[in-house]
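User: I've been going back and forth on whether these two constructs are worth ordering. Before I decide, could you fold them both?

Assistant: Sure. I'll take them in the order you sent them. The first construct and its structure tokens:
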Amino acid sequence: MLLYNVTIGIDKEIENEWLHYMKEKHIPAVLRTGMFVSNKMYKVLHDQEDGTVSYSVQYFAKTIDHLNQYLEIFAPVLIEDHKKKFANRHVTFMTLLEEID
């Protein structure tokens, strides 16, 4: 199993709007691609004095082929939509992890 982790730092003033967007639009759209079997979302607990709050959005894929298909075919449109909606109000980085038995 592979974990595609997306960590997003979002301006605190728009946190609720962003959470609604992620839960109602973005995450369902990612899952509808069929490339992931499940997802989880966590709030990162850290000092938030910089005016941002961070979240870890995790998507679980069975194979690297599924992940690569997602990144090549589906991700560009979904990422662009997120960028437009929250321009200059977020920072994002991605990490790929492989489960070790």
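The second construct, handled the same way:
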Amino acid sequence: MAVEPELADAVAGVVPRLTPGVELIGEYQGSGFQQPRFLVRRADGQVIQLSRLLYLLTTAVDGQRDLVQVAATVSEQFGRVVLAPQVLYLIDNRLRPVGLVVADPQAGTEAPAKIKKTSDPLLALKFRVAVIPKRAVWRIGGVFVPLFWPPVILAAVTGFIGLDGLLLARGALGQTAPSTLALVYQPTSTLWVLAMILASAAFHECGHVTACRYGGATPGVMGFGVYLVWPTFYSIVTDSYRLNRIGRLRTDLGGVYFNAVSIAGMSLVYLGTKAPWLLVAIVALHIETAMQFLPIVRMDGYYILSDLVGVPDLFSRMGPVLKSMIPGQSAHPRVTELKPWVRRTITLWVAIVVPTLLYWTIRLVIGVPRVLPVAYTKLLELSHATSAAAAAGNIPKTTVDIVQVVLLLLPWTGLLLLLGRLAQRPARLILAHWSTAQSQAKRPLSPTRS
């Protein structure tokens, strides 16, 4: 294949270099793709999928080989001839935009790569703040690692099931409603229930980071955020993609496993104390744990399904799958690249998730005008009640009322943030269109010939 002189001059002496901190992980194990996928990790923790050709190219870019030498190395490993201009094209259009190659090969090692902005993942956790740094998270995971020893897992799960059965046999389920009603007159007990739920939620995230460390990956930070409209804890375990399918599933299930451990401990205490508020907390945690398995939004069940089929970020496949379901349309490339059984599984998931999300969206749109006045009235009542309780010196009642005010405001705050985020893209498009129209209106007319 002949190379144009201009291209030959462009590649002469160019020595590409990887961005500092880039780590070559290797093949994505348990993949649901027809062709193998390979993983690379940036310094910021972001894991990126590459084809075999791009991964071989990334491994050949060592900061010493020029483009001709890189092309020769890739050709030898790939089994097909790859020319230096082609290498330059792949670097400029595939590797550099995602931050894997420095922007200027001739600059110092500190030269940053220009990372192309991509669209936000659908239903991702965006409004968050890190609380526990990565080093502390690593230590937390180390403390709880023994809980993932197989004999301990067997004992913990057996104990959880056995204690649940014992609670049911002793009529605990029938005591749930009276225990819940009793909380209305016991502000201190209500605080204890909230405290146990919060502690269990934090312990849930400890399960994810511990499983991540146990499998051989490095967990990131832990923190607090608002997911859609709900307050939540979160943990970064992106590095678990380097693990095999079992390791990734262990990380996904680590949270609900730790939920089971905390519920079992609370059940033991309840059997000894018969405290009604503790029974309410146990039932609430059972419901919360069951909801984690729903694969409709980005909870544990979503990631479990994703790792079972071996396809990260299922929501990014939703559009291609929907387009492929249109009669007369050929299958989208992002669908045909999947293994047949994976393709069928994701298609079924899309067929369930899309109507469900549409249903809840419509319910939200219809319900907001009705619920907002009620919520506002309740907020005023709580404000007056909080002021009265504070004036009377009733600290437990004041604290409970403040918590209720916060819980009432948080979903609406999250809803406003969500709507603001959804409106950003249309607003940018309108602003860009308006700016273009204004610039064209101010452009001077070209002189005309007489």
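Notes on the second construct follow. The two ends are 53 Å apart (CA to CA). The chain has four domains: 5-95, 119-310, 314-358, 367-420.
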